[in-house]
Amino acid sequence: MNRIPVTVLGATGVVGQRFVRRLRNHPMFEVVGIAASDRSAGKRYRDACEWRLDGEPYAGLGDQVLAPSDPAEAFSPIVFSALDNAPAKEIEPAFARAGAHVFSNAASFRMDPDVPLLVPEVNPGHLALLETQRRRRDWKGSILTNPNCTTTVLVMALAPLHEAFGVETVIMTSMQAVSGAGYPGVPSLDIMGNILPHIGGEEGKVEVETGRLLGKVVDGLAVSDPMAVSALCYRAPVMDGHTESVSVRLKGNPTPDQVREVLAAWKPLPQRLGLPSAPEVPIRLHTAENRPQVRRDVELDGGMSVHVGRIRPCNVLGIKFALLGHNTERGAAGGSVLNAELAVSQGLVS
Ligand SMILES: NC(=O)C1=CN([C@@H]2O[C@H](COP(=O)(O)OP(=O)(O)OC[C@H]3O[C@@H](n4cnc5c(N)ncnc54)[C@H](OP(=O)(O)O)[C@@H]3O)[C@@H](O)[C@H]2O)C=CC1
Ligand SMILES: N[C@@H](CC(=O)OP(=O)(O)O)C(=O)O
């Protein structure tokens, strides 16, 4: 297969660098363009930003010159966007109008009812919104988004339970990595040896995006599931990996063993298709009492699987468990790349 040329917008940022590293040697996509703000455009990648990841610095593209984030200068048929929300609002539609298929991490268009908010294992059927989007908007291309990172990890565990039993109520408390706040993010003197009980906008996003992802497409538009979701989000002194403490009320009150069986048997579409970024096992189940742990588990499967452990009865909602996932891989760059792989495999973009 000829690789599809792609551009990474926001290539200098925390998520943008992960895109560039992940797309290096990708079987379906080839990075031909990297772009960022006007502050960085015209500079070589290595001069515009410091490389903050392990592995080969700048993923071998250190001498490539950054383009401005303008479709006239950085067009590719597929564009991965790691832009901040405010610039994403203007720049992503400009690329979509020019005919690019934009796979975005930003929150700007997530809740629009004709924009797929997608986790390929969870709601691949929401790709159908692209048809409505094309009809409604004057775009030759499209915008397709991935959720907030905390939400992504949560819906990976809830989706098979919703399918098997039906989710009625969820209470989720997160302990979120500092990388979620970008670079330099939270000052070290605030987070070292500390827990911060507020992440701006995060709880509201988890509460609305969860029902949207587990909802349906009706008459070509997204309709959220009415489940009740309450989120409490905390910043914790870890680098990468959001831990979530989840209590859930499921229809029919299944036992922990029944829940475990459903999670273990889950083989959703990306795994059946063998998409390159899909982890072979989407949910890693842990039986040891002190797992999952961020330091020991989160990098497994390139950060693309989520981890569930300590499944047990909850006196209030019925079932509770510990959940862990990689916020900047599964929750950001990796999730977006998997979205693009699914869209290409379904013949929706090329
Ligand atoms: N960090 C995470 O865990 C997650 C982040 N996201 C989302 O991904 C996006 C990127 O986050 P993150 O990488 O942490 O952010 P960073 O602040 O690290 O990077 C932001 C990027 O956007 C570019 N940018 C800023 N302003 C403009 C502009 N006016 N025009 C063009 N480019 C611009 C920056 O370029 P320059 O260097 O030139 O300023 C930089 O490349 C955000 O929308 C975030 O909400 C989503 C899920 C998880
Ligand atoms: N707010 C998340 C990261 C993030 O950028 O989320 P969103 O994509 O919804 O803006 C965190 O701090 O961990």
TrEMBL record:
Keywords, ordered alphabetically: Amino-acid biosynthesis, Methionine biosynthesis, NADP, Oxidoreductase, Threonine biosynthesis
Protein known as: Aspartate-semialdehyde dehydrogenase
Pfam families noted in UniProt: Semialdhyde_dh (PF01118), Semialdhyde_dhC (PF02774)
Start and end residues of each Semialdehyde dehydrogenase NAD-binding domain: 5-130
GO biological process assignments: methionine biosynthetic process; threonine biosynthetic process
Active site per UniProt: 149 (acyl-thioester intermediate), 242 (proton acceptor)
Single GO MF annotation: aspartate-semialdehyde dehydrogenase activity
UniProt similarity note: Belongs to the aspartate-semialdehyde dehydrogenase family.
Organism the protein comes from: Mesoterricola silvestris
